[in-house]
Amino acid sequence: IAHPQRKVGNRVTIEGTDTLIGSCCSVDECVRNLVKWSGCTLAEAVRCVTENVAGMMGLRDRGRIEVGRRADFVVLGEGGQVEETWVGGRRVWRKEEGGGREEG
């Protein structure tokens, strides 16, 4: 879109108007929505946004946790909320106890 944009929540509009451009949400929210709307398991939903997407994009160094791959991943809680983020096999972020954010 060749116009300035404004994002409020998941709603994206053309700046200064109510014209809806679309929606924007985080990957973990997409995973939770897929579980809620389809009835699939959390593991099945995660596979849809990781292994399947990486494979379609031809990214052989990510998408699965295996020897020789990047080891970028998140740890999700039972409800699909992000608890930890790991990049290159190193924890870079974790959720503080009580729900806050703690940089690693």
Explain this structure to me?
The protein has 104 residues and is α+β, with helices and mostly antiparallel strands. It contains three helices and seven strands. The chain has helices spanning 27-38, 42-49, 51-56; strands at residues 5-8, 11-14, 20-23, 73-76, 82-87, 90-95, 101-103. The strands form two sheets. The chain has a four-stranded antiparallel beta sheet with strand order 4-5-6-7, with no helix packed on it. A three-stranded antiparallel beta sheet has the order 1-2-3, with no helix packed on it. Helix 1 packs across helix 2. The chain starts with a strand and ends with a strand.
Detail the topology: elements first, then pairings.
Blueprint: E1 5-8, E2 11-14, E3 20-23, H1 27-38, H2 42-49, H3 51-56, E4 73-76, E5 82-87, E6 90-95, E7 101-103
Helix pairs in contact: 1-2
Summarize the structure in short.
It is built from 3 helices and 7 strands; from the N terminus they run E-E-E-H-H-H-E-E-E-E. With 104 residues, it is an alpha+beta fold. Helix 1 (27-38) packs across helix 2.
Which residues sit in consecutive blocks of at least 5 with pLDDT less than 50?
A: none
Question: How many helices in DSSP terms?
Answer: 3
Can you write the helix and strand succession as a string? EEEHHHEEEE
| Record field, number of beta strands | 7
Helical content class: 25-40%
Could you say which structural class the secondary elements and strand pairing correspond to? alpha+beta
Would you tell me the overall average pLDDT? 90
How would you describe the shape?
globular
Distance between the termini: 35 Å
Strand order of the largest sheet: 4-5-6-7
- Estimate the strand proportion: 25-35%
How is the main sheet built? 4 strands, antiparallel
Radius of gyration: 17 Å
